[in-house]
Design a protein that fits this description.
The chain is built from seven helices and four strands, in the order H-H-E-H-H-E-H-E-H-E-H. It is of the alpha+beta class and 209 residues long. The longest helix has 19 residues, at 54-72. The two termini are 32 Å apart. Bound molecules: flavin mononucleotide. The site of flavin mononucleotide has 11 residues, from strand 3. Residues 8-173 form the Nitroreductase domain.
């Protein structure tokens, strides 16, 4: 697959995980792709915690479903009914989970390029996640990003120090298929906007179409 094909095929996966094993060398390539991401000041502020233990995953799944209920309680009418039909994770069905963290102290003090924008460290971690996501897609695997959790809960579940932020819980594994249309679009939650709507010329407010 060329890079545009991989970008087009990538999906956030919840329902299509098979639970089949991933060969060690495939996992190594996917994590290597994540670790090859650009990072502010070459700080490489990411770590990857591989979670296979069913007990840990069950505990996290329960926490996520508590958070899902909390969010659902803020919705009414059509939004509430639509959200009810949307699956938000494949924590138990996927082969394993990869928790990606951000250590703001890595390479500090004086991280080159971060003096004015503290978030540049976090941006770097997100690029590692996107590399992982695209590499997994190229390997025929699915990835599902779960963000229905409290950071303190995940820190305590996995023994992550208070100074290190969990950025993503990623479900990873073989899938029976990748949907062509994002789940949220298929369920009528929200659709991808036309490109023209988000491209501006010269100034932020000058729309072309
Ligand atoms: C930061 C971030 C957090 C996300 N959290 C969740 C989540 O908790 N549960 C979920 O089902 N999808 C989650 N997603 C996936 C998005 O819903 C998905 O990317 C979007 O609907 C577009 O679909 P696609 O990735 O299949 O193109 C998250 C994506 C991002 C980038």
């Amino acid at each position: 697959m060329d890079v545009y094909e991989v970008i087009g095929k990538r999906r956030d996966v919840r329902a299509e995980f098979t639970g089949a094993p991933i060969a060690d060398e495939v996992l190594h390539r996917v994590l290597g792709a994540a670790h090859a991401a650009p990072s502010v000041g070459m700080s490489q502020p990411w770590d990857f915690v591989l979670v296979r233990d069913p007990d840990t995953r069950t505990q996290f799944h329960q926490h996520v479903h508590g958070e899902r209920a909390e969010y659902a309680a803020t919705l009414t009418g059509e939004r509430a009914a639509t959200f009810e039909r949307i699956k938000i994770d494949g924590i138990l069905e996927s082969t394993l989970s990869v928790v990606v963290t951000y250590d703001p102290h890595r390479g500090s003090p004086s991280v080159l390029g971060r003096h004015a924008i503290a978030d540049a460290g976090l941006y770097s971690v997100c690029l590692a996640i996107q590399n992982l996501w695209l590499a997994a897609t190229a390997e025929g695997l699915g990835v599902g990003w779960v963000s229905f959790y409290r950071e303190e809960y995940l820190q305590s579940l996995l023994g992550i120090p208070k100074t290190v932020r969990p950025v993503a819980w990623l479900c990873l594994g073989p899938v029976d298929r990748l949907q062509e249309v994002p789940d949220l679009e298929r369920h009528g939650w929200r659709s991808r906007m036309p490109l023209d709507q988000v491209v501006h010329h010269e100034r932020y407010s000058a729309h072309t179409g």
